[in-house]
């Protein structure tokens, strides 16, 4: 995901670290079928740090699971952060816990805001959402409307009951918003949507893996080719973490702040080895798509295998996702 730190939306909110604070789950409400919205505030009230469209926070759930969720409330609402969570029965447990636990009135540890999906300057914007993927795009649509910039948003879901924030989006954008309930009209015509906007438009997409893979392929083969901005909820290919499949040997990791030197075997991740000594190192997806485990690199040559850092940015990247990425040098030094 690329960004331009000189454009009006950019700030140090893109810092991969983020601050941790305890927030109260003040309110919960249903905004679509199997989608629960949580409103988070300071326990005693008061303003929260500002954030920008595309930002997310990471919740530590009562069980200890850490999960990232896009902020989808009003940027101007300084009193609360809002996230919406889709229940995925076959998922890894985070969404089920949120839906099945009485969270209202409880405090959660919240890290962020963090923005790896920021708006970049463009002549206009095509926003493509699948299901819960609407959450980071809704604040973008609000921001673009406020700035008087052209945009179009396409939201698809299995049926109308799953089109989250549909009424608000239509009220906001009118005929700039296309709702696509699959049971009525089929899948969104992504090729037609991409062909209908000028090459100068930025393309943003968030949703299920097949949709994002399709958007990426269509943009790659377009004339001229486009570079879409995508945010994934699952690994790019749905396989096991990539370091288990790709060849890689053993290497050493030096933890600069802790003064530790550890051996990372060929069949284990950096994250696994580091957590044996530093169990509080943050992580979530363990598949290289969420960015929670992003760690500064102070020496060595990282072998980037995540989907967070754009391929074009990897040669100069100063951080790595330690859940999947490895090392092309004998020793890797991390700021841990």
Automatic annotation (TrEMBL):
Q: Give the top-rank taxon of the lineage listed in the UniProt record for this protein.
A: Bacteria
Q: Which InterPro entries match?
A: 2Fe-2S_ferredoxin-like_sf (IPR036010), 2Fe-2S_ferredoxin-type (IPR001041), 2Fe2S_fd_BS (IPR006058), Beta-grasp_dom_sf (IPR012675), FAD-bd_FR_type (IPR017927), FNR_nucleotide-bd (IPR039261), MRET (IPR050415), Riboflavin_synthase-like_b-brl (IPR017938)
Q: Which cofactor does it need?
A: FAD
Q: Which parts of the chain are coiled coil?
A: none
Task: List GO molecular-function terms, semicolon-separated.
Answer: oxidoreductase activity
Q: What is its EC number?
A: 1.-.-.-
Keywords for the protein's UniProt record, in alphabetical order: 2Fe-2S, Flavoprotein, Iron, Iron-sulfur, Metal-binding, Oxidoreductase
Segments forming domain FAD-binding FR-type? 18-120
- Looking at the record, the residues that make up the 2Fe-2S ferredoxin-type domain are 251-336
Q: What is this protein called?
A: PDR/VanB family oxidoreductase
Origin species: Streptomyces prunicolor
């Amino acid at each position: 995901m690329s960004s331009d730190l000189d454009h009006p939306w950019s700030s140090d909110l893109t810092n991969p670290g983020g601050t941790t604070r305890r927030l109260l789950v003040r309110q919960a409400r249903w905004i679509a079928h199997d989608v629960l919205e949580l409103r988070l505030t300071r326990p005693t009230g008061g303003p929260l740090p500002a954030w920008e469209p595309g930002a997310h926070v990471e919740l530590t759930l009562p069980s200890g699971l850490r999960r990232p969720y896009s902020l989808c409330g009003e940027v101007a609402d300084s009193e609360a952060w809002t996230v919406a969570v889709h229940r995925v029965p076959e998922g890894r447990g985070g969404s089920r816990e949120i839906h099945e636990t009485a969270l209202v009135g409880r405090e959660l540890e919240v890290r962020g805001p963090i923005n790896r999906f920021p708006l970049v300057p463009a002549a206009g914007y095509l926003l493509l959402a699948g299901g819960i993927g609407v959450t980071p795009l809704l604040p973008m649509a609000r921001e673009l409307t406020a700035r008087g910039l052209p945009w179009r948003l396409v939201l698809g879901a299995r049926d109308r009951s799953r089109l989250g924030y549909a009424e608000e989006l239509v009220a906001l954008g009118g005929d700039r918003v296309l709702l696509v309930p699959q049971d009525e009209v089929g899948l969104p015509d992504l090729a037609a949507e991409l062909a209908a906007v000028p090459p100068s438009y930025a393309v943003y997409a968030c949703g299920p893996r097949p949709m994002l893979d399709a958007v990426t392929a269509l943009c790659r083969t377009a004339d001229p080719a486009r570079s879409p901005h995508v945010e994934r909820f699952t690994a790019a290919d749905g396989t096991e973490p990539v370091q288990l499949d790709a060849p890689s040997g053993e290497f050493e990791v030096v933890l600069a702040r802790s003064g530790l030197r550890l051996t990372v075997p060929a069949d284990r991740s950096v994250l696994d080895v580091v957590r044996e000594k530093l169990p509080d190192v943050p992580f979530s997806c363990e598949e290289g798509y969420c960015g929670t485990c992003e760690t500064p690199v102070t020496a060595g040559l990282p072998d980037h295998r995540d989907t967070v850092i754009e391929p074009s940015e990897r040669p100069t990247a100063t951080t790595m996702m330690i859940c999947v990425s490895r090392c092309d040098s004998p020793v890797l030094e991390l700021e841990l």
